[in-house]
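User: hey, got a sec? need RNA polymerase II subunit A C-terminal domain phosphatase SSU72 folded
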Amino acid sequence: MVDGLRFAVVCSSNQNRSMEAHAVLSKKGFNVRSFGSGNQVKLPGPAQDKPNVYDFGTPYEHMYNDLLNKDKNLYTQNGILHMLDRNRRIKLHPEKFQTCRDKFDVIFTCEERVYDQVVEEMNSRSPLDYSTVHIINIDVQDNHEEATIGALLMLKMAQSLAQSKDLDNDIDELLQEFETTINRPLLHTIAFQ
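Assistant: Yep! Here you go:
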């Protein structure tokens, strides 16, 4: 395990971006969990207005087999079966962030809307010990290529944060350097847990 930092990655109800980051960070030894923030897990379907919808807690194995039976060719071509195969090797099922009460040092989000949801959720909770959690957003488009790029950017950021001896004091400078390096805007706030 790298350092003692606990990371979370939260994206919308689609599991591609958060699970790609989870896989990359986990392979590098980071203590990481991944979450969705929507009401249900939504995966692309046969048409844009016909997604496949599952409840959080539905095993990835079930989703994989369900889509395999619905249309193996479609879900192989669009990469959904590959994504679910990866996901089921990482964890049993998708989790909803709002139902998790575990503590983290850093929460990465993949879009501003999700960042706002996470900040709102953390601010609505009664803090247990007033430890800090850094919520950091880096916008990642919802496609396979961007999910990979976003995961690598989160890995670089996690590596930088893990090297800090005093994260609370160093984070502003670290994020400013990182933002300049990647040429993407970041959002950051602190919440108490």
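Quick note: DSSP finds six helices and seven strands in the chain. Let me know if you need anything else on RNA polymerase II subunit A C-terminal domain phosphatase SSU72.
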